[in-house]
């Protein structure tokens, strides 16, 4: 997966992440994101980095952080 090399090269400090799931040709959005997260964990991307890219960084961009 190309995304793994990007994460390893760039890191997750300033990165957001989501899948392109939810269109008629893919699984539904949340199910697709679960698949992507499991793949990232399987490729030894740390759980903390996944949370940062999927949750924390997007919350900062949308001014939703506490």
Give your account of this protein's structure.
Helix content is 58%, strand content 0%. It is an all-alpha fold. The protein has one domain. The mean pLDDT is 85.
Task: Give the tags.
globular, 58% helix, single chain, mainly alpha
Provide a short characterization of the protein structure.
The protein is mainly α and 66 residues long.
The percentage of residues in β strands lies in under 5%
Low-confidence segments, given as residue ranges, are none
Shape: globular
Q: Distance N terminus to C terminus?
A: 33 Å
Strand runs, count? 0
Number of helices: 3
Topology:
Blueprint: H1 2-10, H2 29-42, H3 47-61
